[in-house]
Design goal:
Elements (H helix, E strand, L loop, with lengths): L1 E7 L4 E3 L11 E8 L4 E5 L4 E14 L2 E5 L3 E5 L4 E17 L1 H8 L12 E4 L2 H15 L5 H15 L3 H5 L6 H21 L6 H8 L3 H12 L3 H19 L4 H7 L5 H12 L3 H11 L1
Parallel strand pairs: 1-3, 2-4
Antiparallel strand pairs: 3-8, 4-8, 5-6, 5-7, 5-8, 7-9
Helix pairs in contact: 2-3, 6-7, 8-10, 8-11
Length: about 290
């Protein structure tokens, strides 16, 4: 397995290239961004995992926009156009692991399936430590076999949570069910990144290659919730995050999270989190 390591300092830029994937299958690519304004952009030649360790990482993934914070991790599909920019004194790691290298470590036996499914995951302290160790070993040009195996095991455990949903997907074979789940998961990712916008079922259905009625039935059967319920949950999570991380007024938080009716927002927020939005803000101020 080949390992490529690159460190970006203040204002550093890295072009990932055109994304044709040539030679990427057996490659582990480790990129560390340290400092203000580091930019990594291009089409991902392999599945990529982005992990902020300090500060904020702004990421454009296709048409989706994310602001990643420490404690979060994003998996980006192979072939996706990405632009990652560190803000402030940000420190982040991007890991691009070719399908061949990943399958050897994970023991996967499905050569035609995506090895990692696109998703936003929580990143525990232990997982972040594993990422740091992998980057450290790669920076010294040493064999990263053990560090990579530990990282693959951690990611495999994270994505194992998708298995019950995949099993509920229609399809006669595991590969077909996984393909259906991938389409539905892309929709969920769009919901998470764009929940504040005026999104509609017809657009989601087109994205998943279903008719609107078939999409609603399949989505609800797989996830146990309607698309609307999942969208509302994403909006509430966005609001919770903004209350903790911004100085926006509660009314403005509701608006930029996609809620037009402030009273409906207040009821939904308290029902979901067991505390009012104002109470959560006061709680945060008291703890600061």
């Amino acid at each position: 397995m080949r390992i490529e390591y690159e460190r970006l300092a203040n204002g550093g830029r890295l072009d990932l290239g055109g994304g044709d994937g040539a030679g990427a299958s057996s490659l582990l690519r480790v990129v560390v961004g340290a400092g203000r304004g580091c930019v990594m952009q291009g089409t991902a030649p392999a599945a990529m995992v982005l992990v902020p360790l300090r500060g904020r990482l702004q990421l454009a993934e296709g048409d989706n926009l994310h602001t990643l914070l420490p404690g979060e991790l994003l998996v980006v599909e192979q072939g996706q156009r990405v632009q990652a920019i560190g803000r402030g004194a940000a420190l982040w790691v991007a890991l691009g692991c070719g399908s061949g290298a990943w399958r050897r470590c994970a023991g996967a036996d499905t050569p035609s399936d995506p090895v990692l499914l696109p998703a936003l995951h929580p990143a525990s302290r232990a997982l972040r430590s594993t990422v740091i160790e992998l980057a450290r070993v790669a920076s010294h040009g040493n064999a990263a076999t053990l560090a990579l195996a530990n990282f693959v095991a951690a990611m495999t455990e994270l994505q194992a949570g998708f298995e019950p949903f995949i099993e509920r997907c229609p399809g006669r074979t595991a590969s077909q069910r996984r393909s259906v789940f991938l389409r539905l998961q892309r929709v969920r990712n769009v919901m998470a990144a764009n929940c504040h916008l005026d999104l509609d079922i017809a657009g989601f259905a087109r994205m998943a290659s279903y008719s609107p009625c078939h999409f609603i039935r399949t989505f609800s059967s797989v996830f146990g919730e309607t698309p609307h319920a999942v969208l509302v949950e994403q909006r509430l999570r966005r609001a919770h995050r903004l209350i903790n991380a911004s100085a926006l007024a509660i009314t403005e938080v509701a608006r930029v999270s996609g809620f037009e009716d402030r009273c409906a927002f207040a009821r939904s927020f308290k029902r979901r989190f067991g505390i009012t939005a104002s109470g959560l803000r006061e709680q945060g101020r008291a703890a600061a």
